[in-house]
Amino acid sequence: MRVSGKTRRAPHLHYELLEPAADQTAEHTFVLSHALGCDLRMWDSLAEHLVAQGGRVLRYDQRGHGGSDTPPGPYQLAELAADAACLIEELALGPVIWIGLSMGGMVGQELALRHPGRVKALVLANTSAGYPEEARAGWTQRIAAIEQSGLEAIVDGALQRWFHAGFHAEQPATVALWRSRVLQCRPAGYIACCAAIRDLDTTERLPVIHQPTLVIAGALDIGTPPAMAAVMAAGIPGARLEVLKGASHLSVLEQPAAFAACLDAWLAELARAEPVGGAQAPSGGAAAASRAARCSA
């Protein structure tokens, strides 16, 4: 069953909820959170895979993207995490397994830190816990370029980071599709999210995250390279790091089968290690007490 809608609480977020077949009881609820300049369609393949395995899947457009509202910016990652917490609360779905890629992984970190009762496990793909000053300056330059010349000024550079040269050569139609989708973004929303990403800084708080965590990196990712993933895996107690060969930044699009297989293997190990009453990391640390998000309608 597929249900689409918008949240009651502003900013109104466009979402799609996929339920498994009527004869299946969902073992897990997954929330899929997309990258900057994308929308919920980034997850088409993985969403189908998870539902086929009996999962309940919620995917949504982040504020400033797709069918969701674009409130005035700049945004903060804490605001994007609050959006997600209230979406989960409104649909009465938590706690969830959060799967976030790039900006979606940044939101996932803040969600686990600020609203831990909403999350029972984390998958952080092709993302970071913070940027050096040079990279922060690059985000400011990107904002200025869009303000002056629109998204055309940055789209081709983004695609070079998203997909490696071989993928560009072998899958030109896919690259062209995502180029058109970036250009369909609202510049104001894109810019507001750029500011949130630029100001990302969770590195010192990572040890507070108690949920079982899988960190996925792309071996060819130059935007959030494996070294950034290693920082997160080292900082989050019990986290596991997996590096996908032949994958750049949008690894779930370049290597969908490898991404799904990596996730499946981790979920299977998590299930074997899960005691009655809640998930634990495969390495087995005790879960800290969590606090629930409170959202106003």
Task: Characterize the structure shown.
- With 297 residues, this protein is α/β, with parallel strands linked by helices.
- It has one domain: Rossmann fold (3-Layer(aba) Sandwich), CATH 3.40.50.
- It has eleven helices and eight strands.
- It has an eight-stranded mixed β-sheet with strand order 1-2-4-3-5-6-7-8, with helices on both faces.
- Strand 3 (29-33), helix 1 and strand 4 (56-60) form a beta-alpha-beta unit.
- It is globular and about 50 Å long.
Features:
globular, disordered C terminus, Rossmann fold, 297 residues, alpha/beta
Q: Shape, please? A: globular
CATH structural architecture: 3-Layer(aba) Sandwich
Q: What topology, given as strand order, has the largest sheet?
A: 1-2-4-3-5-6-7-8
- Structural domain count: 1
State mean pLDDT (0 to 100 scale): 91
Q: Tally the beta strands.
A: 8
* Rg: 18 Å
Please, what is the CATH homologous superfamily? Alpha/Beta hydrolase fold, catalytic domain
CATH topology: Rossmann fold
The level 1 CATH classification is Alpha Beta
Helix % is: 40-55%
The end-to-end distance, rounded to whole angstroms, is 26 Å
**Biggest sheet architecture:** 8 strands, mixed
Question: Can you count the helices?
Answer: 11
Question: Brief overview, please?
Answer:
With 297 residues, the protein is α/β, with parallel strands linked by helices.
SSE layout and pairings?
Elements: E1 2-6, E2 14-18, E3 29-33, H1 44-52, E4 56-60, H2 77-90, E5 96-101, H3 103-114, E6 119-125, H4 133-149, H5 155-162, H6 165-170, H7 172-183, H8 187-198, E7 213-218, H9 226-235, E8 240-244, H10 251-254, H11 256-273
Parallel strand pairs: 3-4, 3-5, 5-6, 6-7, 7-8
Antiparallel strand pairs: 1-2, 2-4
Helix pairs in contact: 2-3, 4-8
